[in-house]
Amino acid sequence: MGVGPGPGYVTEAAAKALADADCVFYEDYTGPLHLESIRRYAKTEPIRLTRRDLEDESGRAILQCLEKGGRAVLATAGDPMLATAHAAVVAAARRRGHRVEVVPGVSIICAAMSAGCLSVYKLGGVATVTYPRGGVYSRRPYELAEQNIKRGMHTLLLLDVKEDGSFMPPRDAAAVLLALERLEGRGVFKPETPVVLVHRLGWGGGAKYTNLAQIAASDYEGPAVIIIPGVLGPVEEECLQTLR
Ligand SMILES: C[S@@+](CC[C@H](N)C(=O)[O-])C[C@H]1O[C@@H](n2cnc3c(N)ncnc32)[C@H](O)[C@@H]1O
């Protein structure tokens, strides 16, 4: 079940699922989750599951609740299935014969495209900007943006989650993209590259049409997404100018 990008986005369907559940679980490593919104509707105290509980242990606590005949809910920020690995939990429960309903939420991906004035018809592949691991950078955002730009498509970049559960600030993401440019050198991420920054949506943040150099020098907080616009239509261009 998704509870949207921030407070106030719990749908009636999500509220009903919470009210009907015997066990309420949540995770907050794929996006910040407003726990009070969940408590408002749930009849039991929500239990936090970590990435390890869900991805390494296959959501065992959820399956145990189901196997005792209970109804279980797993609440996530945004939409529960977009840019997450939660399909594995759904599949594990269905394989054991349980009925599973996915309750969609307002995804940060949809919300960011809306707030950023960009047409989803031109959204190309999505990637995540990650911190270098063991000194090695993932080249995926660079290669994907390069392909999307060639086709005139927009590139939506999600930002890494740190080990301590905090979200990569936009300045760190801009620094990673500029470092990738130094490694690859094909002119995909230049300091003057125009970008749409969507930060802390639903939590008092907003959207800004700016460039990579300005983001690298900014103090916006995460969570955030960075969109590299492709070829802009006149309506997109006109709307983007209002985000300067
Ligand atoms: C792995 S994605 C999960 C997306 C989620 N399942 C959804 O559909 O909304 C998590 C990333 O989305 C971005 N994000 C999450 N919440 C956000 C928010 N409220 N405002 C801006 N970006 C956000 C951050 O880049 C974060 O690392």
UniProtKB/TrEMBL annotation:
Alphabetical GO biological process terms: methylation; protein histidyl modification to diphthamide
Residues of the signal peptide: none
Enzyme Commission number(s) of this protein: 2.1.1.98
Binding positions (S-adenosyl-L-methionine): D79, L82, S107, I108, L159, L201
Gene Ontology molecular function: diphthine synthase activity
Keywords: Methyltransferase, S-adenosyl-L-methionine, Transferase
Keyword Transferase: yes
Entry-linked InterPro entries: 4pyrrol_Mease, 4pyrrol_Methylase_sf, 4pyrrole_Mease_sub1, 4pyrrole_Mease_sub2, Dphthn_synthase
Keyword S-adenosyl-L-methionine: yes
Pathway: Protein modification; peptidyl-diphthamide biosynthesis
Domain Tetrapyrrole methylase: 2-205
Family membership: Belongs to the diphthine synthase family.
PANTHER family cross-referenced by the UniProt entry: DIPHTHINE METHYL ESTER SYNTHASE (PTHR10882:SF0), DIPHTHINE SYNTHASE (PTHR10882)
Protein name: Diphthine synthase
Organism annotation: Pyrobaculum oguniense (strain DSM 13380 / JCM 10595 / TE7)
